[in-house]
């Protein structure tokens, strides 16, 4: 399988501030790749480098095997992009903006485009006759989404595409992306909405402070975290509970026994659980949210432990960059 | 502190830089006008002579105002009051719209109106801020008159006349913001009303009757009663001080502000008297690439500049002959000295030719402002994020920036051509000799190189320091215009004047015109422009800020 996007050791500095610090990312052909990270982790910067809008300070970046900075226009013929914050032209209507973007991308077959556009305008319940400034955030996002999905592309890049959409429209978005994937396209989806990533993505990269901290299929990533196990505590012998192999953080609370175990150690526990009887047994695999929170949480605790002096130094660095 | 006080302070704080800039611009214009008048027309006999010429040329009365005698302050009032009125009027309408419809459009009004301030208090705070700004500006005008030796009471009346115009247009602006759904629409309507007030007054002045007495006073025609600027003018503070016409402006302002408050207190947020029409749901044939897009973005402004160029050209054409026919030789020398200094260093020649060259220097400045707008639009698109969308399609950086340069160049050529053609039409209608036609065409073409150099310089700023494009771009342009075209009037040394490309514009007077500087400037424009485009391809997109 070839990689559509290949990033290794990507660095980007803005003045003295390091935005990306050795980021790695691979999007294989035909996969939907989730790109996760807290605000300011460098997701949008990475995407702008992939689009040749910004130049990498260091590291290797290729899109379709080519250099996105020097071959930007050629690469863009195969890309559809939805920015995180869609800003429209104030004196153009939404319909005009959609057509303009589509024409810039290059409309192959006019009737196919017209039909596809009409379909998308309809299911996104979009009013194309209003002027750009009159649209809400969600409606501006719809302009970019309709323009992106109205023409086929080999790579779709979505930067938090549904942050302004309601749950109904999110569902429409998922359905349309799934439809677009049928002809073998790849997707890079940066998102905060973890359920969306779980629904759509084959593989996920989690970044933090400009570095990739985790990358793999959802199943692989789940192996890295612990599964939560709980069952009724009535009549359980504390000594036997203490002897469950591989149990961490065991506690008895509110009539339930709870503990966690490494995900790949769970099958080995099943015999012990059967011996115990374990009434009302639940085994909960880790959600993506827990995965995300685990890394994010480290970040929060880091910040809390930082001294004030350190915090003010950061601010200086940021100011210096302006 | 009450809600009104908090909102008033917030408005003053938000506008502090802008209002100071308006005030400085206003003071500078008034000072320049004053020094030009005192240095060129220091002698009452000269002023009487000028007034007699003006009375024969109604097109100048349209631009300036009606003569109110030869007293120096009255003479200045005639030359400047209408201009200053437009300045104060625009300041007031922009202020009114910015804090009402502008805030509503941006969503800030919703935030404020959800507090105990409610719907009406923010509008009231805007009105109070506007009155403060107008009064301060008018006081600066009065103080200027007093400092140059005018009678205090008369100077204060002149200020009150200006303030009445400002208050009238403040009310008009507040009402426009209720009428239109967007700040763009409201600003457009309000500015059009300011322009209409200026023109209606102009027609009144041009159709006025010369007083029988000394023949140096003109009473405007009845149409000037339809304009707040006309009311202000009729206070004639330095010849026949009359206070009550100023009250008309204040009353109009109060009436409009009251109507705006009434509308705002009963209408929904985001609603307007004239609802915004739904636009087309798909793009027309011209909107198919970067050039079509840039044209669409700049269309309104360009059409405005073309109309201005046409009117100005017509005026220049018709005036050039009137000057020739009316003025006696003594006045010709005086006028020739003034326009000669605008036309260029050490320029001498026929008064009509000098006049045409000097006026086209002003048209060149208009064209340069037009072209700077194109590049500044590129920066605004980059900062606003719409350029990111365009550049994520197969459009290259080169094609993207060239669209702005092409549309900018085309509109400069159009502005100069329209000005030249309308000047020709005006001159022909007035019966000017055919030699004037040649001067008009040459003077028009001669403006192009300097304008292109300025376009290239603004592009270079955009390529090197994108975040400073708007401020630095306008600053450099206005400085170049000022040094190049008015440096002579202020006696700047040649070394300083030569920095500006406008100082090198060929002087198209006499049989042997030297075009070499024009070719050099074209070359400079191409080199700087080319370098800018290459630099632009090498930098990151600078979003935001």
UniProtKB/TrEMBL annotation, chain A:
Chain spans, region Disordered: 299-322
Pfam families: ABC_tran
UniProt GO molecular function: ATP binding; ATP hydrolysis activity
Membrane topology: Peripheral membrane protein
Family annotation (CDD domains): ABC_DR_subfamily_A
Annotated ABC transporter domain residues: 5-234
Compositional bias of kind Basic and acidic residues: 299-313
SMART domains in UniProt: AAA
KW ATP-binding (keyword) present: yes
Record-level GO BP terms: response to antibiotic
Keywords associated with the record: Antibiotic resistance, ATP-binding, Nucleotide-binding, Transport
Cellular compartment(s): Cell membrane
Gene Ontology CC annotation, any one: plasma membrane
Family: Belongs to the ABC transporter superfamily.
PANTHER family named among the record's database cross-references: ABC TRANSPORTER ATP-BINDING PROTEIN, ABC TRANSPORTER ATP-BINDING PROTEIN NATA
Protein known as: ABC transporter ATP-binding protein
Lineage: Bacteria, Bacillati, Actinomycetota, Actinomycetes, Micrococcales
Automatic annotation (TrEMBL), chain B:
Domain of life: Bacteria
Membrane spanning residue stretches: 74-97, 118-143, 155-176, 188-204, 244-263, 298-319, 354-376, 401-425, 445-465, 472-492, 516-536
Keyword line: Membrane, Transmembrane, Transmembrane helix
Protein name (database record): Polyketide antibiotic transporter
Gene source species: Orlajensenia flava
Lineage of origin: Bacteria, Bacillati, Actinomycetota, Actinomycetes, Micrococcales
């Amino acid at each position: 399988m070839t990689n559509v996007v290949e990033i290794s050791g990507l660095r980007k500095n803005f003045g003295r501030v390091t935005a990306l610090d050795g980021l790695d990312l691979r999007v294989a052909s035909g996969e939907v790749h989730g790109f996760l990270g807290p605000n300011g982790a460098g997701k949008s910067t990475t995407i702008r480098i992939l689009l040749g809008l910004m130049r990498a300070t260091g590291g290797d970046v290729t899109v379709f095997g080519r250099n996105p900075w020097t071959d930007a226009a050629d690469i863009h013929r195969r890309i559809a992009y939805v920015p995180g914050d869609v800003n429209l032209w104030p004196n153009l209507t939404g319909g005009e903006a959609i057509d303009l973007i589509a024409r810039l991308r290059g409309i192959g077959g006019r009737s196919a485009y017209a039909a596809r556009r009409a379909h998308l305008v309809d299911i996104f319940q979009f009013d194309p006759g209003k002027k750009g400034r009159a649209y809400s955030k969600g409606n501006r996002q719809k302009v970019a989404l309709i323009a992106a999905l109205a023409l086929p592309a080999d790579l779709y890049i979505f930067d938090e595409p549904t942050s302004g959409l309601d749950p109904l429209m999110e569902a429409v978005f998922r359905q349309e992306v799934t439809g677009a994937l049928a002809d073998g396209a790849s997707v890079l989806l940066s998102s905060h909405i973890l359920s969306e990533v779980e629904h759509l993505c084959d593989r996920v990269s989690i970044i933090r402070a400009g570095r990739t901290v985790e990358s793999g299929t959802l199943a692989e990533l789940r192996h890295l975290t612990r599964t939560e196990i709980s069952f009724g505590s009535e009549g359980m012998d504390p000594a036997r509970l203490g002897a469950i192999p591989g149990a961490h953080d065991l506690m008895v609370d509110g009539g339930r026994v709870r503990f966690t175990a490494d995900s790949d150690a769970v099958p080995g526990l099943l015999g012990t659980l059967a011996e115990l009887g374990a009434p009302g047994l639940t085994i909960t695999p880790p959600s993506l949210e827990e995965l995300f929170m685990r890394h994010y949480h480290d970040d929060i605790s880091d910040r809390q432990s930082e001294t004030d002096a350190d915090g003010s130094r950061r601010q200086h660095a940021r100011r210096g960059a302006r | 502190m009450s809600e009104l006080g908090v909102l008033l302070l917030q408005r003053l704080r938000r506008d502090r830089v802008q209002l100071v800039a308006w005030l400085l611009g206003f003071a500078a214009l008034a000072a320049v006008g004053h020094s030009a008048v005192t240095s060129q027309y220091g002698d009452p006999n000269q002023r009487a002579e000028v007034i007699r010429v003006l009375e024969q040329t109604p097109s100048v009365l349209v631009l300036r105002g009606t003569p109110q005698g030869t007293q120096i302050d009255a003479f200045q009032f005639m030359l400047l009051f209408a201009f200053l009125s437009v300045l104060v009027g625009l300041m007031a309408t922009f202020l009114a719209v910015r804090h009402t419809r502008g805030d509503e459009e941006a969503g800030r009004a919703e935030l404020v109106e959800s507090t105990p301030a409610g719907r009406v208090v923010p509008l009231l705070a805007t009105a109070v801020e506007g009155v403060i700004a107008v009064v301060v500006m008018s006081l600066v005008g009065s103080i200027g008159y007093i400092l140059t030796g005018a009678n205090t009471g008369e100077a204060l009346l002149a200020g009150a006349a200006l303030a009445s115009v400002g208050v009238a247009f403040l009310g008009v602006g507040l009402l426009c913001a209720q009428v239109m759904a967007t700040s763009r629409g409201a600003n457009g309507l309000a500015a059009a009303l300011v322009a209409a007030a200026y023109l209606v007054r102009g027609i009144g002045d041009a159709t006025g009757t010369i007083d029988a007495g000394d023949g140096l006073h003109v009473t405007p025609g009845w149409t000037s009663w339809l304009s707040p600027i006309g009311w202000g003018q009729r206070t004639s503070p330095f010849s026949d001080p009359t206070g009550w016409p100023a009250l008309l402006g204040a009353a109009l302002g109060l009436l409009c502000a009251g109507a705006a408050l009434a509308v705002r207190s009963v209408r929904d947020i985001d609603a307007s008297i004239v609802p915004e029409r739904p636009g087309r749901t798909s793009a027309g044939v011209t909107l198919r690439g970067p050039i079509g897009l840039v044209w669409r973005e700049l269309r309104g402004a360009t059409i405005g500049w073309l109309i201005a160029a046409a009117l100005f050209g017509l005026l220049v054409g018709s005036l050039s002959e009137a000057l020739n026919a009316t003025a006696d030789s003594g006045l010709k020398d005086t006028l020739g000295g003034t326009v000669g200094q605008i036309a260029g260093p050490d320029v001498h020649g026929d008064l009509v030719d000098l006049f045409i060259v000097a006026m086209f220097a002003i048209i060149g400045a208009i064209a340069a402002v037009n072209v700077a707008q194109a590049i500044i639009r590129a920066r605004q698109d980059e900062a606003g994020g719409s350029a990111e969308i365009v550049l994520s399609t197969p459009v290259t950086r080169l094609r993207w920036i060239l669209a702005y340069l092409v549309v900018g160049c085309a509109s400069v050529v159009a502005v100069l051509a329209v000005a030249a053609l309308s000047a020709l039409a005006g001159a022909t209608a007035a019966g000017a000799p055919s030699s004037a036609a040649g001067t008009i065409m040459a003077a028009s073409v001669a403006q192009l190189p300097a304008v292109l150099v300025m376009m290239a310089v603004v592009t270079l700023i955009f390529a090197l320091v994108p975040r400073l494009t708007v401020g630095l771009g306008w600053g450099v342009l206005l400085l170049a215009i000022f040094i190049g075209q008015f440096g002579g009037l202020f006696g700047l040394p040649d070394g300083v004047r030569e920095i500006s490309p406008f100082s090198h514009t060929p002087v198209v007077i006499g049989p042997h015109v030297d075009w070499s500087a024009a070719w050099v400037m074209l070359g400079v424009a191409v080199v700087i422009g080319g370098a800018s485009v290459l630099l632009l391809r090498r930098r990151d997109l600078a979003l935001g800020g």
